[in-house]
Records
---
Amino acid sequence: MVRRSHIPAWVVSIVGWRLHRQSVVFALLVGVIASVRCATTDELAPPAGAVLSGLLRSGALPTMSDPERATIELGRFLYVTDCADCHAPEPVLAHTLSAWQEILPRMAHESKMNSDEVAAVRAYVSALHRLASTTAR
């Protein structure tokens, strides 16, 4: 057993600094991890009901038929579920509508969506973009 009195002071100093540095790095990592939170599904793809209510309230959409509502609700459901099969869903508004025109056919092919399902996702994405543009004014 080595007694501390036989360890040079400079060694104790270096070891102490390394332990201190590791503690500081660990504390910083814990702080960063604690402050980062994942976005919820509702933040990435707001519920269809909220999107439709916002459009109706803003006057951007004077009326909505039940089939249109059902299509948009299906589009949101497919966006959240089918997209998540392969990757984490991205915020819908992270892409422009023109970008979605290129993204949807490619992703639909990969996920084997039929044309009605693609139309539903397109309707949801369009409705959300429409709401965003009315609230941005």
---
Amino acid sequence: MKSIKKGYQKGSPESDRPFIFVDSGEITMRDVPHPVVGIDNKGNTKIMMPGGEYSFPGSSVIEIPIKSKGKGFSLVKKANLGMRTVVGDPIKHPDKVRALGLNDETIYVPAGEGQLDDPENYLNLEKLDQIVQAPYANASIPFYQFRDMVRTVEAGPNSKDPYTQIQFVNTDDGPQPVRRELQPEYGTGAYQFDYETAKTAYNRLKQIADKRDMDYPLITDEELMYPSELAPELQDMLFTAHFAKDLGSSVEQVLTDPSYWAENWYKGHYKGDDESRFHHFKDIQSASSR
């Protein structure tokens, strides 16, 4: 790979390249008009700002420019387990940058040097509820009350821990929990998501966050196979996003009249054709109101 001397400095013939290889661990950002992500041959990553001087442990560095796209910079999604994102609106938060790498792929920035947190930009359950309820400011019922009822129905009113609930199936030895290797095909957790429904719910959650230029929790594909092992807040968020963006549901109805709860659950979440499940919901709801 060819080593570049001037890099992304003003007037450099290489300034339009999607990435640049530098045969040194010492990087100068003099005369570079934009931030650059540097990744050395040992995997160390830094966000390098214009005018700065940077030293990497490795002997060579790949530089990737942080370039603008559209109205602002491309959003970096949240990673976990020691990872943080560089986020922030470039107008409201000029001290924060957003990384966009080769072929427009997302760049994850390790915790440590270059880390910039923006907790206000992170989508959690409280903010998700606010987003869902915002169009219906005069509604009298908070969304969590409907969600609590769905959780009671889905996991069962006698469940000791709805969030870890696993379906039981009949066997020669009597009812037994579904084996782990089969759980992705069955419903598990507080809202009895199977794998495919959990994936749909997560995609809807990401759509809600993307529309508002927000970060969201990272949930791996494997984790979506076993919803009962996800944190309670994540399960609540998946249900909320899945229901709120479903064509068969009406958030307005569940926020204004509990008599619509069973119908909305049946059409917007259960999606089966067993009408006894609809009446089961009504019975549990009626018993809980006594």
---
Amino acid sequence: MDFERRFVTVDALRLERRAEGGGATLVGYAALFGSLSVNLGGFREQIEPGAFKESISEDDIRSLFNHDEDHVLGRLANKTLRLAEDAKGLRFENDLPDTQTARDLATLIERGDVSQMSFAFRVKPNGDRWDEDPDVLESDPNDDWHWAEELAKVHAWREQLIVEHDGVPVGFVQIIDPALEDSHYWGDCGPGLRAIDIWIGEPPHRGRGVGGAAMREAILRCFAAPEVTAIIIDPLASNTDAIRFYERLGFTFVERRMFGADDCHVMRLERGERT
């Protein structure tokens, strides 16, 4: 099987110069877990934690310039290349050799001309999973929420809830105050509003009333605050099943609105109008 290659913008890439005459070390993350790739020709990839663990422990991995074996920059076996998985991704440290290629590369990185790298890999049999669920593909085609990082953040304007069914996590609900949300996704909003996002995961957990129960609980949580007068949501205009679902809960159409590249059907539920 041929190697596949992926180009990535190296997260937190930095060049550490050692004492005079001691060379330099490249430090950064070669891959991030839980982050969607760019469109790779009709599909996007996400690397799961543990993807590199076996290779790091068993293979003599080399760092190469432009994947050229004539320009070795580091090697795992002699510890000039050090790789480790952590909660964020694949972290690397690469002690650069005293070669013209490495010196040129160090200069280019310090100047900011080079900020990307690529890694080559083979996927073991049954080592990948293709998600062709149309609801997943339709739910958020243009955004990468960087969940691995985002879920660790705590904001006063946001409440995040895991949906469980029979003790199994099956979905996720997010309630935000759109007037305080830091990206100003909803634009200029006055006080007294809440916005809800809801995701129900794998197909076996859909169509069983779990989403409806979760949404009704989220609505109750929003209106438990006396200052909240209405709730807003933004299903994709093409997601007619979701729109009908929200209509049954009492939401009414407000406007058709573009959020970035997403064509959305904005809906609103006033206090006292829920079903």
---
Amino acid sequence: MKGTITGTGQQIVRNPTAASLMADIRSGDRALRHRAIVQSTLIGTPLIADLGRALGGDPAIVRAAQEALRRVVHHAARPRAASERRTACRELLKLTDPALPRAARVEALSLLGCVGNADVVPGLAGLLKDPDVAEEARMALARLPGSAARRALAAARTGFANEPAGRYPAASSRS
């Protein structure tokens, strides 16, 4: 088959597209899903939105999309890839839209806590008032380095007078 090479027991597409990888993730074929997960970093950040939208419905599709999303985001956060990291963070912030499935929002917030920086703090701080994902937004902020995240958590602490003490502790001290 043109455009493919055969590896260790599975066919590897030389030039996969976002559409072909998403079709493979949505397929019922476990081998195709696995191949799509492995190759997701070849497409990179342009896949983030589609993968996020796939995080609702069939559990097998959700698991495959979630693993591919994690791989893409962590790959984008590698050393010397600052531009890709920024793009990944922007795309992840879009996945926090309330119109998307909660699973997509939660996964995006978890990943932002891992790869985000001060640029994502305003978006995360705004989500502290969203009861559907406030705790996940708080946890993401707590994992971010720098004073901007600490200030956002401190502001949230003073903004929620009826919250139990300790719910919004200071952000991590890593910088």
